Predict the 3D structure of the following.
Amino acid sequence: MKVRFTLPLTALMFVFLWASTAPIHAQSESYVDSLYKASETDEGKSDELTTPEPAAQEPAPAPAPEPQSATEAKPDDNIHFQTGQMTPDQLEQFIRNIIAQILGAGGALPGRIIIIRIPGGGCPNSPQQPPAAPSTPPSAPPSTSTDPSSSAGIAGLKAEMSAKYGISADDNQGGAKWSKRQLEEANKVLATLPAAFRNNTKSIARDLGSDMPRGVLGWVQMGIPRVHLLNASTYQGTFQGTLVHEMTHCWQANNRGLTQSWERQFWPNGRYGGPQPSSVSGYGNTQPVEDMAESVRQSWQAGASRKASNPARYEWVRVNVMGGKEF
Amino acid sequence: MTRRICISAFVLFLGATLAHGMIKTLTIPDLVRKAQVICIAKVAQQSEISVSKEQISTIKNVLLPEKVLKGDWPANEPIVIMTKKCGESGQIGWLEDQVEFPPKGYRVILFLEKADDGSLRTVNLVQGMWPLDKTKPLGMGIGTTLAQVEDLIKTQKN
């Protein structure tokens, strides 16, 4: 009698514990995997730039799953659950079957199984607010996944980027190519940025980065309005942040006076005297232009947090770069 | 002379493209762990030794080690590091993330590792070179003290 109730009870606890962690996997690893299209040779998952971004809060609906080998890289862009490429409904049914089997094995009476879904909304303690709700509405809906244009695939998303923002999405060095998911994310980022900032960038190139040292996420050569996004950057949060960081270098090339003004304000002792106060990241402490690029990235990616911790930089970025827009 | 050349470290930072951008930051323990040689050195000489047709300069940086914190390095042997440069920071043509040493007389902490060809290079590009303001690290070392670095080296050695 005791065993009859203990076994199903233990099994139920296990199943609910497992089910409760599924959304976490869905928001992190599997999402990251879907964004990541490169060979696993970098350490992008462990960097400091994995701040939650609006896209993480609005995952695209998963399509009907297709059979897929675990070792075969499938070139689609949709979010999959970590376990078995399931949609939420399929996952629920899967759990339902397991419970039914366990109860059946334990000799419990058959009955209706009710599974309560707890909607995922990110960590409630997250200190950073996503820039999904700027004070002024973006020029386009941030989520392209529900837009009919997303179904047009990669070509459609590239055309959308070009038509809406005047930026070409180029497949570039080393054979790196844009994935649909990456294009969706890039378009979402661009939609939130002010046109005066965005217009300094004319192309965004995916770059394999095989001839770059490990750890390089993206690059720009000052004066050439092209952002290179390397495979190492294609992780949730890192991808979006790197894009904004590199776009800032394109902005700097066309705003030399303001860039020098930044240097005078935050690096009063010169480049080798260090920033005053410290930049928003270690990388930002290396030199004034990186300090600004990091400050723009973090103002966009974690505005509320930056406003509190480094108000002078946040305000400078808001006024001079973002045209007064709050993030 | 040959021995001197062999002992000197010729650090080649870049691949063919010579343009690097935003990098992923290592944690300080990882930076220390990856470094095979960590030392405090003084910039003794900087000279442009060539300019490519793309106007990219190769700079020879000679540094004199003052204190070796990790690894083995002969006390009186200069560290020679070759870097690339194109334009000044933030100006048109400037290339991101080139390791650029402060002027002659400045002191730096170097985190060096062996490249595939056996030469030494800074760990994680610009993260592996911290200018020093007296004893206070600058660059990506801001917020970390020398004592903390030394403690980490001790801890990781044990």
Summary: Residues 2-61+74-105 of chain A form one domain.
